[in-house]
Description:
The chain is of the alpha+beta class.
Amino acid sequence: MRExxxxxxxxxxxVAALFALAGLVLLTGRAPLHQAVLMLLAGVLVWSTPxxxxxxxxxxxxxxxxxxxxxxxxxxxxxxxHSTLTQRWTLFRGYRETDERxxxxxxxxxxxxx
Length: 114
C-alpha cells in the first residue's frame, strides 16, 4: 500500500510541473495573461493540496498530545492526557510491530481484496 502512495507522489509532481511549464510557455507566448496565471495556479494547487490537508489534520489533532499504547493479553489500550480507549483482541486479527510502527490488523469481509 505504501508503495502506491510513492507512485502517486511522483505523479503529482509530474502533473504540477506540466501545469507550471504550460503556464510559463503561455507567459512567453502571445496567450492572454489570465490563461498563463490560471495554469501556474493549477500547478501550485496540484502540488500543495496534500501539504494543506496534512497541515489541517495536524492542526485539528495537535491538542490531543502524544498517545501511549499499552498491550496486554486481554486488550489493547490507547491513552493520552484527555482520553483512554480500550479494545479487546477479538476486534482484531492480530498485529505487526517494527521499531517505528505498531499496526493492528482488522477483521472483516473486505480483507480478502487487500
